[in-house]
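Comment on the following before class.
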Amino acid sequence: MRVLMFRRARLALLAAGVALGMTVTGAAGAAGASSSAAAAASFPNVVVPVPVSETANGSTFTLASAATLTADDANVGGYLAGILRASTGYALPLTVGAAAPGTIALSLSGAPATVGAEGYQLTIKASSVLLQANSAAGLFHGVQTLLQLLPAQVMSPAKVTSVAWKATGGTILDYPRFGYRGAMLDVARHFFTVAQVEHYIDELSLYKVNYLHLHLSDDQGWRIAINSWPNLATTGGSTEVGGGAGGYYTQADYTTIVNYAASHYMTLVPEIDTPGHTNAALASYAALNCNGVAPPLYTGTDVGFSSLCVSLPLTYTFLDQVVGELAALTPGPYIHIGGDEASSTSQSDYTSFITKAQQIVGNHGKAVMGWHNIAAATLAPSTLAQFWDTTKSNSALAAAAAKGTKIVMSPANHAYLDMKYTKKTTLGQNWAGYVDVNAAYGWDPGNYLSGVSASAIAGVEAPLWSETLVTSANIDYMAFPRLPALMELGWSPESTHNQTSFDARLGAQGPRWHAMGVDYYKSTQVKWPSGS
């Protein structure tokens, strides 16, 4: 990529009448030498996801103690100021909507239209930094790139001395390949608190994730309070895998998570898994069962044994009221209805249920998202299907895509963050194989499923199931370093995908994670700097 960028810069200079390497005397010679130096300079190979284009100018920016910060958006400005103040110890006064730019200026004007709603243009000079975007989300994504160009210690929550806060000068133009770049956290198998989810959001936002998918219900637990069905939380949420105490979010808790995600430019996608994976709900209300008998709570890890009673009218009253309350709490466009591993539901019952579920979700002003198994039914034009299998073909999904269905790619043998890295990994599972860094990065979401064109792909999601995960440290260990790999596939142009280059940039993330206290897996496929 950088060779290509250099060649493009050289051609541009030649077109302007400047021949690289020629000897010129006087002022013209000095200008020629300066142009040559700028063209020969390059950005360090450290940014993940890799930007669309990078053009170095040969200068170096140094953040000094007297620096100031201006921002057209108070939230993004405050976010950047908070990180920089903590690690540098500088005052960095922030002015919102200033007429004159600060040392670092975050501007909502002047960005090229080509960067769209989430892209940005970052210009770094010797004395200033200008970040331009068309939206606050674009500014936020650009801030992540700027932070990666500064020394890794910038991510430290405590003041760091004896560090020169320098960044390579030049211009970066960047925007996403796909509009959906998600991460899923399973809070049903093991419950994670609001603070733990917010911690994960902090980490996800570093790599330009823009959707957070919460798996809120399963056989082992129901994690969201539903006022019209209170036992779902108090009974269904009372345990978890292994028999722990479980837990659930009040509606106020859920709103807190929604708002925190939004402050990081992330849209929440809540999932209530149906018609299978429903033992927690069935155990909470005997009337939801076809035989009128509530099964015991379940704390194991088997799948496929539970099912809502598809022929029961109460099932659809239940679904309508649950979806209605969730929809009212969720600003985002999607309600995820699950739909996977429903082996205890007959095929005819399954398709009937998915059809009715789509109608119910639509009646509440939301679009359905579901695991790709829902393609067995006729899908509404707005329905989003999520592919999770280990194969490269699915005829029903391909047929749905041909009719307009968009697909989020999460093939388990590449994108499931709960798969073990190697046989020696103590956490996670291996039913989809072992997924180290190269497996997570080494595929193309736009050219993976046979019979499905790139135009049908909405994006990428990295699911993290929690059968074996109990702590935030467990989450960190399984998500990093693979989460950044998957987000590069979702953000960066396909033409930039290169395993060797990526592994080098991923290695540069190690010191950042070390500074943040992230307990990541040191894959042997990556060269990690000493001390990280």
User: Anything to note?
Assistant: The first helix runs from residue 2 to 15. The chain has a mean pLDDT of 93. Residues 408 and 467 are 23 Å apart (CA to CA). The longest strand covers residues 53-62.
